[in-house]
Amino acid sequence: MEELVKLQEVTKAFKDFWGKSKSLAVKNLSLSVEKGEIFGLLGPNGSGKSTTLKLILGLLYPNRGRIAVLGKPPGNNTAKQFIGYLPEEDYLYSYLNGRETLDFYGKIFNIPSRARRERIDFLIDLLGMKAYQRRPVGEYSKGMARRIGLASALINDPDLLILDEPTNGMDPIGTREMKNLLLELKTKGKTIIISTHLLSDIESICDRIGILYQGEFIAIDKVDKLLLPYKGEHHPLENFFIDKIQQEREKRDNKKKLEISKEKEETVSVKKSDIDQELLNKLLKK
Ligand SMILES: Nc1ncnc2c1ncn2[C@@H]1O[C@H](COP(=O)(O)OP(=O)(O)O)[C@@H](O)[C@H]1O
Ligand SMILES: [Mg+2]
Predict the structure, then answer these.
(1) Which of 38, 42, 27 is nearest to 5 (CA)?
(2) What is the pTM of this model?
(3) Looking at the CA of 51, which ligand is closest?
(4) DSSP label at residue 44
(5) For residue 156, which of 49, 109, 258, 264 is within the disulfide window of CB 3.0 to 4.6 Å?
(6) Which domains does the chain have, with CATH numbers?
């Protein structure tokens, strides 16, 4: 199997204004995603999903560890030609309409004008944007903006698709369509990494998932395998996710409590030895 994305013990810390380490967004993270796989990056808000994706794309640099994307370092110009990215926030030029937006991205990839037009027609059709393709994107609803964002990510017919919360703000119909579209892309051999905190979105489409908690994987495996104990339940992934996060929280709380009580014990024993020393001094003086 061909590994398209490989992270080896990657750590990313954000620094504050004074250069002090402010938060460890990603801790010692290892991950490999194979060709043709749909990998789901799950986790509560702030668990490091977007940071991980940005590290893969070369938009952020790790403090430690190694990353290879399509066999190249992140951000490599040749590799970029084969990658599509949908950021968490929609960065659209409000005064361009849908078609013009796609044309703009097509030009960045140097797609010749005729092929560009055909590709844009294809994507507008694929994402059901015909009705509003000539409206300025500044007037788009969140769901429409997500669609145009995804179409932009697909303009270069990428082999690797990186989607950060693609269904955020989409209605159930849009969400269903997005799921079907991702499955269709999978049948074409595309590799997809998708981050989300909306679990129902990805349960049925991912081959493997990883649950991030405070920048670390607390579970990573094939979906069927992880959800085996939850078989027959109404929302297996949701139940698994909540159980896993709760267990991890308790584990870390207990560890913290243990550390605090150890610290207390140490201070008490230090004080005790101080008293003993005082007593000893007095006795010696006598
Ligand atoms: N540019 C930044 N500067 C400082 N801290 C950041 C920055 N980006 C993210 N973080 C912090 O890193 C952690 C992970 O954030 P993020 O990757 O956006 O999480 P997620 O996408 O899972 O919600 C959070 O604690 C967040 O506050
Ligand atoms: Mg995010």
Answers:
(1) 38
(2) 0.88
(3) 1
(4) S
(5) 109
(6) 1-82+160-232 (3.40.50.300), 88-157 (no CATH)
Nearest ligand 1 atom to the CA of 52 is 17
Distance 53 CA to ligand 2 centre (A): 9
- Judge if the beta carbon of residue 80 lies within 6 A of ligand 1: no
In this structure, are residues 26 and 51 in contact, taking their beta carbons and an 8 Å threshold?
yes
CA 31 to each of CA 20, 40, 52, 204, 235: distance values in angstroms, whole numbers, following the listed order: 27, 12, 10, 21, 26
Q: Is 45 in the pocket of ligand 1 (CB under 6 A)?
A: yes
**Residue of the CA atom closest to atom 24 of ligand 1:** 46
Structure tokens at 116: 């560009």
Own/partner contacts of 118-122, CB < 8 Å, gap of 24 or more, are 119/155, 119/157, 120/155
Give 250's Cβ-side CA count (13 Å radius).
Answer: 6
What gap in Å lies between CA 75 and CA 78, rounded to an integer? 9
pLDDT in tens, the chain (286 residues): 689 999 999 999 998 777 777 788 999 999 999 999 999 999 999 999 999 999 999 999 999 999 999 999 998 999 999 999 999 988 888 899 999 999 999 999 999 999 999 999 999 998 888 999 999 999 998 888 989 999 999 999 999 999 999 888 888 888 888 888 899 899 999 999 999 877 776 788 899 999 999 999 999 999 989 888 888 888 888 899 999 999 999 999 888 888 888 877 777 666 666 666 776 677 666 5
- The one-letter amino acid at 78: T
